[in-house]
Amino acid sequence: MVPVHSSEDKKEEKKPTINLFGVTPKRAENVQRGLFYVGLLLFLYLFLFNKIAAIIAFAVCILAGLVFKRILEIYEARVKRDMVYELPVFLDTFLSLYTSGLKMETAIQDSLVVTKRLPIAFEPVLAKWHDRGGPEIALKTLVQFNIADLKTCATMMIQLVRGGERSIEFLREWKDQLTIMEHLKQEAGSAAKPIYFTFLLGLPFSVSIVTWFYPFFVQAMHMFDGFLF
């Protein structure tokens, strides 16, 4: 028996997405809805025996759905950040291979070896490279990830496909700008770490001070017990 899929599911499968363990946004929504219904059923069942347990069970299911969604959002944000971080290395390798005489498709494919996250974005591009729309339509797949740097990369590579006179120079200059920006971000993060760790070290010290002076605070408060009505 051949399984029947809706047009919406087929459209989602064709669209490149960042997901954790193959969980697409549609499946994540179904998981949340399932947890809600499970919590509702548990609430109705447990309400006959223990009202507090029923409320707790329902709240746990709702909270589990929210936590699940938040985990997926954090994972997606992290992957997108890693993509931007890997982009200068990818472009440096790509430019070296492409200017050495390799075809653009082969240069992209070989450059993905030096990255970890970017294959998620570029493998759909390579899969559509020889489709009816050609490389230009394939490169526009990068826009669907809603990452500004990937959109710029798609635009520059499309110009390269069209044979722009200075497309290589523009791509190389933009790659250098990305490298500088990522370097500045790393320096900014390194500068903020001492402040963060100093704050963390100050927490135990603050707790020890409060613990040490707490008995004196209690004694001082009891000194005025006789004057209060």
End-to-end gap? 83 Å
Write down the Rg.
28 Å
Shape: elongated
Average pLDDT, all residues:
78
The proportion of strand residues reads: under 5%
Count of helical regions: 8
How much helicity do the residues have? Answer: over 70%
Structural class: mainly alpha
Q: Uncertain spans, ≥5 residues at pLDDT below 50?
A: 1-13
* Biggest beta sheet summary: none
One letter per element, helices H and strands E, the order comes to: HHHHHHHH
What is the number of strand segments?
Answer: 0
Structure in words:
The chain has 229 residues and is mostly helical. It is built from 8 helices and no strands. The chain has helices at 7-14, 25-46, 51-99, 104-111, 119-127, 134-139, 148-162, 167-222. Helix 3 crosses helix 4 (104-111) and helix 3 (51-99) packs antiparallel against helix 8 (167-222). The termini are far apart. Mean pLDDT is 78; it is low at 1-13.
Give the structure's gist in a few sentences:
This protein has 8 helices and no strands. It is mainly alpha-helical and 229 residues long. Helix 3 (51-99) runs antiparallel to helix 8 (167-222).
Keywords, separated by commas or semicolons:
about 230 residues; mainly alpha
Topology at a glance:
Elements: H1 7-14, H2 25-46, H3 51-99, H4 104-111, H5 119-127, H6 134-139, H7 148-162, H8 167-222
Helix pairs in contact: 2-3, 3-4, 3-8, 7-8
